[in-house]
Write a structure and sequence with these properties.
Layout (H helix, E strand, L loop, with lengths): L4 E4 L2 E5 L10 E4 L2 H9 L6 H17 L6 H16 L6 H19 L4 H31 L6 E5 L14 H10 L3 E7 L6 H12 L4 E4 L4 H6 L5 E4 L3 E3 L4 E4 L2 H11 L3 E4 L5 E2 L16 H4 E2 L2 E2 L12 E4 L6 E4 L2 E3 L3 H10 L2
Parallel strand pairs: 4-5, 4-7, 5-6, 7-10, 8-11, 10-15
Antiparallel strand pairs: 1-2, 2-3, 8-9, 9-14, 12-13, 15-16
Helix pairs in contact: 1-2, 2-3, 2-4, 2-5, 3-4, 4-5, 5-6
Bound molecules: 5-S-methyl-1-O-phosphono-5-thio-D-ribulose (MRU).
The site of 5-S-methyl-1-O-phosphono-5-thio-D-ribulose (MRU) has 17 residues, from helix 2 and strand 9.
Length: 348
Amino acid sequence: MLPTIAWQDNAVVMVDQRKLPGREVYVTCTTAKDVARAITTMVIRGAPAIGVAAAMGIALGMQRSKSTGTRQFAVEFNQTCDLLAGTRPTAVNLFWAIDRMKRTFGAGAQGGESVTELKARLVREAIGIHDEDVASCQAMGRHGATVVPDGARILTHCNAGALATAGYGTALGVIRAAAEQGKVAAVFADETRPFLQGGRLTAWELVRDGIPTTVITDSMAGPLMRQGGLDFVVVGADRIAANGDVANKIGTYTVAMMARAHGVPFYVAAPLSTIDLATADGIGIPIEQRNAREITHFGPTQLTPDGASVWNPAFDVTPHDLVAGIITERGIARAPYATSLPALFAQP
Ligand code: MRU
């Protein structure tokens, strides 16, 4: 399993995803600020992974706290939660993880725990969120593999792999599980402009696993489907609204439209922590705008002329009617999502 993020010797260690696949470099965060910076600068990215990072960042910040009284400790805890909440707006896993840390803090504080006990409780919860995410991905893989046809030629967009989670992956978890059952003939990874999560990270993971991998530029997915070259599409998600609308990496909507036009089933794999029942539909999902430089430059090289403006939304929203099914750790939700998604949460 790829070491995406780990709690190690009272620090948070993560692989620097900006440097992959060229170099495998690890970043050690010793403060909550370090973790917040790692999230905003994309050292770590992918919805479930940034949720885990936020939880570990909070635990780390509080572990280092000098507060001796619980009142001052609580003030510092809330400030640390706010710091992490300000990092990236779209992936709801971030806010889900922060809420969980707040609930566990509240339970400890109400029970009269000391600062030392609260610190230990926060570290346990953050590690628990990490470990649960790996188990969720493996369960998603088991459910998802059932809908992958034999000999499937699969397309995925962005990176929804071990690197985007605590391990194994959501969309790549489904692909991994199907590959373990001998069902996968080929995987096509969209390059995923402008940050190249597909070309750099998805391809790196799949090649390491010995799964036959072909990288295409984003604009090639449509023609590939038109030639009959794809049987199945699976992507991850950053936030799924109550009606089943899916926010995911920019370009996902185009893939879903192409899949609909060519009769290729389009699936989304995501844990319950990505489903936001409090947001009614995709219009309510905040979409992060990222730095123009991601588009105007490739490393130090300028690609576009001075004076051209840039639109760089990091995510788009795929309407629920284009989604064949949402693969979760509790099974596959189908339309109408307004009833099937809440039903997943109601399961014991
Ligand atoms: O900007 P990123 O790289 O954080 O965007 C990641 C994605 O859009 C992924 O597809 C999504 O988070 C699902 S990850 C299991």
